[in-house]
Amino acid sequence: MLEELYEEIILDHYRRPRNKGRVDPSDFTVHDSNPLCGDEIDITARLADGKIAELKFDGRGCAICMASASIMTQKLRGRTLLEAQQFIGGFLNMMRGETPFGGKELGDLKALEGVLKFPVRVKCATLAWNAALQGLRQPSSPSAPPEAGKPWSPSAPPEAGKPADKQS
Ligand code: ZN
Q: DSSP secondary-structure letter at 120?
């Protein structure tokens, strides 16, 4: 019964993928494939303020691969780069059967945990996540965050408020 439910979740994401397409322009694009199954995937993302502002996937593959990518885009959008990497790490651990991925975060991911019973399909489920991780680890984009210690408010007019020196 429970397994049927999980199957439903996967099929739902497969039939109605979320965030499918390409982010353009993108801060990173990663292509990865799983020759064993014929899965091909492209992950594109746009970053802003140290967060994943947009994340999309494109490609072709089996239901597990496509559903997993769809779920991933939903889970990672809006996270900081560090949070996203930690989240991916947690998921990959779960898919190695190491640490159960607990907590309220799980949601639709619970459906993918069932793939563990089919070791040949694990690569399908992790493909998008590994690709995203590669992208997030790429040496930083040109739009590096501004120096942390320097608060600079663009709204403060530089020196404008200072009355000019009296010119006698
Ligand atoms: Zn596959």
A: G
